[in-house]
Each structure stands twice: as structure tokens, then as C-alpha cells.
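Crash report, auto-generated. Payload:
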Amino acid sequence: MASTFKPLNQNDITTVRDMLHEAIPITGTIVSGTYNTGPTDHNIKNYETGLFQSVFDYPYLSSSANHIFDLTVGYSNVSSLSASAMVAGGTQTNKKINMYNEMAQILAGFDETGSVRRFDRDGDLTGGAKLDEVFIVNFARLLTKDEIKKQSFSMTLLTGSTVSTPSLVSSNLLIQDHGAQTSYKVNSPVGEYGILYTGSAALAGSGVGLIYYQAGICVLTASVFDGPAVADYIGNNGAGGETVNYTTVDDMLISGSISGSCDAFRNRLDNISFNNTTEINSTIYFCRANFNEYNYSSNPTYLSQSQIVVKTSPNELPRAFVTSVGLYSADNELLAVAKLSAPLQKDPTDELILRVRLDY
Amino acid sequence: MAFLDNSGDIILDAVLTDTGRMRLAKGDGTFRIEKFALGDDEIDYARYDVNAATSIKGLTVLQTPVLEAFANNVGSMKYKLMSGLNNNLLYLPIIKLFESGDSARFGSGDSAKFIVLVDNTTVLSVIGSGAGAAASGLPGGVLNGIFTGESTHLIRADQGIDNNKVLTISPELRETQYMVKMDNRFGSLIPPQGSTTPAQPAFIDDDSIATYILTSATDSGYVNVDPNFLINPTQGSQPTGKAVAGAFGSRVAFRIKASTSVATSDHLFTVLGNVGTETIGSLASGNYRYVDTIVNISGETTGYSIDIPLRYVKQT
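Recovered output after restart:
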């Protein structure tokens, strides 16, 4: 009996899992500078709540703009910056504590008493130094996809003496997740994370931040900007149409708004790069055309007055040309299509195995 | 020692069709790939040079550029390759419209089509004033889509060898099951005579294309493989009228019932339609709107398919 469909049995179907990585470079000029053509960077969006700031790769009113990350700052309620003496002269203190706690309870979770865990410098939750004043970079899902690839993250900050004369590129502060491929942490409620280091290797106790791979969030201690207490050490450097600079990063975290602190951070951001990871689950269908199968076509041009045009006598071998593979349901509904790059001749002297991969 | 030729093992990336995505989203288990077919939609076999040297006979065909996959399930895999046949065949059956008598089309040449009148007002206007809805008198190729039982006009297609050199058809090539696809927003399939109860679609896809599976065993009103129709001069008689010049395989026939939505609403005619420019019976041009669609008939055995132009007409 002639037929056009061939059943796929369990030996014709297999599943595979692949990891696809993309390199994501984020240059500092996009984050601050490229679109700074007016009182506000056109690719930076601040919100009425003032809790965070969104960074786009293009003026965000354009449909071409892609959201690349959100920025916020915060400190814990046990930080010295939240002390009552500080609060008196502080700006958005509650909001900064709120942001710290929100991120900490999601990323670090709660301790056995139900209190929010503070970010830990070395990932050992049983003790050690904590990160109580932090900058937080939430990367968009568009960039991180399923997760950030371990040991691929790097961030370069300008930490020079003043806002107007930050360090030259050759002496910028390079922050990386050294050794994370094998020494990442798994005690976070949102998956795996690594420790960020400023040195050339993972030195115990020298971490300056945390990178949460599946969540796509970087938590960076504000102390990376600790330096000489000089005028105009850190600040927005004119961003937003005004110049509000501070002598220390602590001054900024106390007196500056969240958006102002984010502006300052952006102006000190030279480069971010990482590889993202997309987990691709594929089903491979082995479509086997045996020697005696698929040698005739139902294409109208295959016949002329019902005579097969690729043969002149019954003794010649039939042949057909394949350009597509259709995958069908039991009720003959076309569910997926695969195309060949060029027609493939099929005749009774040959067999074909077309491996059709369907990604999910 | 030379490398092995692995050119027979090819990896292709598949894309889900819109219907595939819809079934996947439903999550009801209907997204289940159980079979495959091979297609050759881009190929023009007339470019195969049977008189050329063996090595270059198919050269032009092999150079044919192949389009990327269409996500529309209806637009892909229209022509399939066939299996299960011996290598000595020189003739294959086709499906061809039977165009005479009650199954003639309206118009001629490129403008020939079947017309479905979608409401009683339109039917009366086509027949002429004073005639009742029950009256016959519709022009050839015009189907009464509202009082379907009042007209004998139908759509009929024959399967067989369209060459008078071949008077027998192998049972393995005879179609006993047809797949009919049509736009479900406009109409549905009913038997060619008798009952006016619409057939039940096997499924309706995301584009409202209904697919009917008609089998000779269960839908004998639609599919006729009466052995008396088989052309075998020594064993049976030939059908008195058939579309194909040679061996007859089977026949599929049906009428169209207009959907309630097009019978009661002008919306689709306003959005998709045009003002008619030809006279249909007593219905003058300019007094109606129409929408052109197609009905696709394909044989489940050979995969051969034809598109039949269909025009839905509604008086304005």
C-alpha cells in the first residue's frame, strides 16, 4: 500500500541537553556617556518610588531599546550607616534598608530565627565578615538567559582619586569570580553563586562581592570605592544636570539618594562582561528513509498526463528530491517542519537518515 | 584509507508550526509527534532532463534553492514523497475535478470556480424574483449554502490515472481515504446528497482551517470506491462519467453549507471581501460582496492534492 507517512518508534526518538553560551560585553560608555545628551541620560530610567534605576542600551523611549540591567544600593539595618546619628542626616534611609533586605531575603534567605541573612563576604553563613553596604546590579533576563556562566564574570571599576580624574584604564579595579567553576556556593535559596575578588586569584577572605548565577544578580560591597577622603571623590559627576559629589562612598550612601548613588556607580563603571548560558533541551527524530521508501512524489510536476516525468520506461529507477521533513501528530496534523539546505535526491539505490532536531 | 562518506546522515533544525505551538501551549497531550513525511514543495520535476547524461539529469533540480520553513502548518509540506510502491511504475494516479452536470464550475478558464450562496436573500436574488427558496434553477457551479437540500449541485473529484493508455490501477494506489481542508469560518462539509448534517472535522487548527477525514468505509456518502467503477474491461464497467482519462480509482464528493456567522453577519465580507463584478444568475454585479477561499483535497494514500477555488457570495 502506498503511503506518505512513516511512524516514528521509540528507537527513532532521543532527547539531548546542550548548553549554549553567548559572550555579553557591556561597555561603560553605554552605561554612562553615550546617550548623555540632555539633563538626563536618555537610556537611564528612574522611577517615582526612587528605589532603583533601569539601564537600557539605547534611549528607552525607543522601541529599539533593550533593558540591560537595574541598579540599586542599600545597607543593612545593622550597618553603621543606619545608626541613629546617621539617619538624622540621611537620605532615603528606610528605602536603602528596604532594598538591602529585599535582595538579601531573596538571595541569602532567612536564618533559623526568621531574620534576614546579611550578604556574607565568603559565603560561609556560620560567621565571618558581612557585606552590609552594597551596590546591586540586577541583569535582565535578556542578557543572562538561563544563567551566567561560572568563572566568566568580570567587572572593571574606575576607582581613582576623584570623580573627574578616575584611574587610567591600566590601573582600573578588575573584579572577577576567580575559581568559581569549581568552588561556587550552593547555600543560597536562589541557586548557585560565586565570590567576586579583586586580585588575580581567589584569596580567602578577600571577596568584594557575590555573583548569583541563576538569579543574574551581582552584589558588590560599597567598600571597593573606599579611598582617600578627598573632595569630589565619588558622585554623579554632573549626571542629571547637577554635580553632587562626595568625599567618601559612605558620605554618598548616607546623603545621596538611591538614584544619585546609582548615577555615581554608573560613572565609575568601565566594563562588565560575562557569558550567559541557555539550556537547550532537544528531541532528535531519526527520520529513516529506506532504499524502497520515498522514491516517488505527489508533486503535480512529477507527472505529465499521469506519467512520471523522471522516467521514460518502467525499467528505470524512480527518483524524487527531498527538500522538507514534516513531523506529524497521530491525526496527521503538521506540528513541525525542517528544511534541507539543498534538494537531496532519493532513489532505490540509497538510504537516508535525516536527523531532525527540535529545540525547547 | 579514505574517510567514510557520511553525507547520508544529515542534521536539520526543525521549527514548530503555529498549530504545533498551539497544541504545545494547550498542554493537553495533543502535541505528540508520531510520524514523519518528506516533502518536495520547491521542486519542479519538469526541469529534470531525462535525455541528458546520467550524471547531470537532475543537476538543475539539485540546484533549486530551498525556502526556509513556513510556520503556517497549511503552507508547508503540500506535496509529499511516497513509499510502498514497486520500482516499475511509470504512471501514478492524480486527483482531478469532475466538471460536468451537477458538479460543473461557474465560469470558465482561470475564473472558473464554485460559488456558495450564504443566505436566503442571496439565493432568491440569484434565482430571480418570485421564485421560492425551494426552487431549483441555480446556475451551474452555484451551491445553495443555506437550504443545502434544495440544490443538487456539488463538488466532485475523481482519483485515477489520467492517461488512456492505462486502464487498470493497482489497489495499492487507490485512494480510500481523503483529507479535505477548508476555512471553518465560512462553511462546513455536508454529504453530496441526502443528509444536510455537516461532517465532523477531525480538528480545526489555529487559523480556523478545518480538516475532515473522509474514509470509504465510514463515509461512503462522500467517498465512492464502488468496484463497478474500476476500469477493467474484462471485469467491470467503467463509470459513465469520470474526470480522468484512464483507470479510475475512487471518487470524493461533497457540498458546502455556509456557516451561521457568514449567513447572519456581513463582517467577514466587509473585512476580507470585495464587491462582485460579474453577474450570477439574476444577481447583478455590484449588488453583492464575495470572499474567495480554497478547498484542499488530498489523498491519504498517495498524498496527491488539489486546491479548488471557492467563492462565498452574499447580497449587499
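Post-recovery validation: The first strand of chain B starts at residue 9 and ends at 16.
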